[in-house]
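Collaboration report, partner site 2.

Our partner group contributed sequences for two proteins of shared interest, and the home lab folded both. The records are reproduced in the order in which they were received, starting with the first partner submission.
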Amino acid sequence: MTAKLGGLPGMRGIDHIGFTVPNLDEAVAFFVDVIGCEAFYELGPFQSNDNWMRTHLNVDPRAVMRRLRFLRCANGSNFEIFEYEAARQRREQPQNSDVGGHHLALYVDDMDAAVAYLQARGVHIQGEPTFRTTGPSAGQSWVYFLTPWGMQMELVSYPGGKGYERDTDRRLWHPVFPDR
């Protein structure tokens, strides 16, 4: 499926999601050893004595991108994980309510098994899974959890589909059925 008429020419979908972590080795170990992603190549360091970093990446001109690593996590977008060093670098994680707040959601087939797995590995689960029984998300369960460095992630599951599917033949992308 390509972009709708009038959209970005040739757009096929999301290639990767990039995010910055305080320690690349810790993040890669978490995503590989706990989540089950596959690590691919690493690049870096990158820095510049002119304004290249500001012009191209919108960071402090003297910022140093120590390293970056690409990972694949089953079906869906790849991750590009960065480790930066910069003057006035903010090190606290944004909350979902902050501008720029975000979370990464991982689809799982069995919510209870996934939660138990993460708990057995010492991962902080934020509350209990929520199950939606009405509305467009009916049939979906979800729960947030935190990475070791405090980034919010989510487990989501809707093996029987979502409520909105009763009213349309259109579908959101689904990692279990990537060709739909």
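Second partner submission, folded after the first:
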Amino acid sequence: MPLVRPLDPSHSPETAELAKFFNETLGFCPNSVLTMQHRPAISKAFINLNKAVMANEGRVTSALKRMIAWVSSNATGCRYCQAHAIRAAERYGAEQEQLDNIWEYRTHPAFSDAERAALDFSLQASQVPNAVDAEIKERLYTYWNEGEVVEMLGVISLFGYLNRWNDSMGTSIEDGAVESGKQYLGKHGWEKGKHDGSVY
């Protein structure tokens, strides 16, 4: 069982209405949000922040944002968020070659230099201690503008919150996310880990 049990989706009508957003992104309301409902102000604030961060403002595509989220979650080791991020990347139109080779983004030809800079930024910003430096700044600004960098860091920061939330909670992972995790990440050893619903 997770550290705190998720509540029924109908527990907070306002949260339930906002959470329809996740039916598009994932195909289900995540257990992380259902757990946040124990304090509805947190679940509502989180959903609204998620919607703002993931809004498509231009060249940082919805698919790239989810791949940025995957790199961040991989760096911190949250298997729950890894599976969610790769599932959302698929649902938002990431190329099949990118999904199949996300672990090799630095060298695989399916990724552009601009995408590599964004994904390296995610990796460096997600480390402790933080590894963002002048070199990554220069690479970022070769391809992206300030607003786009803010969008990227919004995704990285949002998933920093989610990684800590879900790994600390041992949030039970949903069947759909398990399918995506096995399909795209299984060859590199992805498994449910503490998110199988029986750890705590």
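Feedback sent to the partner group on the second submission included the following. The first helix runs from residue 13 to 18. The two ends are 5 Å apart (CA to CA).
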